[in-house]
Amino acid sequence: MIKRIGIILSLLIIITVAGCSSSSGNVTPIPAANINQIRQAQVAKVWTVRQVEINLESTTSILLKLTTGDSVDGYFYLEKGNDIDFQISGESQIYKSTSATAGSANITSDRFSFKASDDQGIAYTLKFSPVKTTDAKKVNPVIFLELIYPATGEIFTPMDTK
After folding, report:
1. What's this model's pTM, rounded to 2 decimal places?
2. Which of 74, 114, 138, 160 is the 20 to 30 Å CA partner of 152?
3. What is the pLDDT of residues 97-127, one digit of tens each?
4. 15-74: per-residue pLDDT in tens?
């Protein structure tokens, strides 16, 4: 009986080591957004206010999980850089930042608010994308974002894989 247990444990160890040591060399990690939380506070145990700074190296999405009727209010501005694309979507696009005159002005700040509805579902995505320029210089925008959402809501940000 003890011999059988020893053999089974030995096999488990060999399988575990062999399974963990194999790796495909083709995996390329996706660069994670550098999201730094500056401040978070609860207001009257009903609302959550969250301020974050985003170093936008690539397209970054922030996910909000809400219930029907929840309201979200927020704004952002660029601390560095001169243009980004921003949109909010649920089941379909709800909002997209546009310049004052189409095609001539850059988006450097915006204020937004929306209300969760049955039609749009429970998951809402705030998507920030750097604008590709024809200049040789590449500037990663830095965004200050403030969100005010119900304390019952949840927020999810990309994990840092570095």
Report:
1. 0.73
2. 160
3. 876 545 557 889 999 999 999 999 999 999 9
4. 655 554 444 444 444 444 588 989 999 999 999 999 999 999 889 999 999 999 999 999
Strand extents, DSSP E, 44-137: 47-55, 60-65, 71-80, 84-89, 93-96, 109-115, 123-130
Largest CA distance in the chain: 81
Torsional class of 16: left (φ above 0), alpha (ψ -120 to 50), beta (otherwise)? alpha
The two structure tokens encoding residue 60: 């970054």
Hey, is 147 helix, strand or coil?
Answer: strand
For residue 137, the SS3 value is coil
Give the burial string for 71-88 (b: 16+ CB within 10 Å, else e).
ebebebebeebebbebbb
- May I ask the CATH class of domain 34-156? mainly beta
- Cα angle value 160/47/59 (rounded, 5°): 30
Nearest to 97 by CA among 86, 111, 81, 82: 86
Backbone angles phi and psi of 7, in degrees to 5: -65, -45
